[in-house]
Amino acid sequence: MTDPVSMRSRRPAQLVIDELLRQHGATPPRSAFARFFGVSPLAADSVSWYLGATGEIEVGRILAQLPPEWTVFHALPIGTKNTDLDHLVVGPGGVFTINTKYHSGKTVWVGKRTVMINGRKHPYLRAAESEANKVTKLIQERMPLPAPARPLIVVVDPKSLTIKERPEMVTVLTAQQLRRWLTKRPAILSSQDLAQLVEIFDNPASWRQESAGDPGDARLRFEALHAEARSAHTRRVVWSLAGTLAIFGAAWALVMGGGTAWFVSALTGLFGSLAVGWRGT
């Protein structure tokens, strides 16, 4: 069940990892052949959960570096079933809800009313505003609040982030910008405000009650799956390079003549390395 003592003990991506592992449990194990050629251990339906967990863990790592006067909460159950608040941060500069988006290598464009990823619109602004409004309401039912919660969208590892026009309520940042941006906010909360807010957020009764497994065990299982996925990716890259080498090697052998022995030797060495790695998988 939800920790009856403290919500601060919750880990980044806790709910996302639980759902990922639930879905992955129905995925058949890969054959030796599939592992050898780098077939991903993730089913198509699991990829978005896996990437979401990866992004939340990275942002959680960055938030852990905030100064001690800041308090961070992760994976808070809010709203309907299976939805959560990725991160909630409270410090001298205010209360901030963080919606993490993992878009590695993609172009992110932000306008006043929309966010586009590689040219496609996504309803991120509306979702971020809704999360902040829920937290603001939660606080106002328990104490006076100098300012409403501010919604942030934090993009992990984008190719580029272009702010064409700033949204009215939501701030969009990269993960690399997050810590500095938070610590540069002017102080608006007193030490008494901070203590009262942390007490509210830390109380499990403030949030949706839910069943959950052991977060430590889930994190270990995620790390094992993460290692499998990275290994599979590396194998796919190697096989892609091997295919390129085969094409150019064949062309070289045909043009130069006598190059066949070198080509065969190179491929034999490459396949031998792959075989050694496969036995260790």
Care to describe what's here?
The model is unreliable at 275-281 (pLDDT under 50). The two termini are 35 Å apart. The chain has 8 helices and 9 strands. The chain is globular, with a radius of gyration of 24 Å. The protein has helices at residues 14-24, 32-36, 47-63, 124-140, 175-183, 191-202, 215-256, 260-279; strands spanning 71-77, 84-91, 94-102, 107-110, 115-117, 120-122, 150-156, 160-163, 171-174. The strands form 2 sheets. Strands 1-2-3-7-9 form a 5-stranded mixed sheet. The longest helix is centred in the C-terminal third of the chain and has 42 residues, at 215-256. Helix 1 (14-24) packs antiparallel against helix 3 (47-63), helix 1 (14-24) packs across helix 7 and helix 7 runs antiparallel to helix 8. Helices cover 47% and strands 17% of the residues. It is α/β, with parallel strands linked by helices.
Annotate the secondary structure layout.
Layout: H1 14-24, H2 32-36, H3 47-63, E1 71-77, E2 84-91, E3 94-102, E4 107-110, E5 115-117, E6 120-122, H4 124-140, E7 150-156, E8 160-163, E9 171-174, H5 175-183, H6 191-202, H7 215-256, H8 260-279
Parallel strand pairs: 3-7, 4-8, 7-9
Antiparallel strand pairs: 1-2, 2-3, 4-5, 5-6
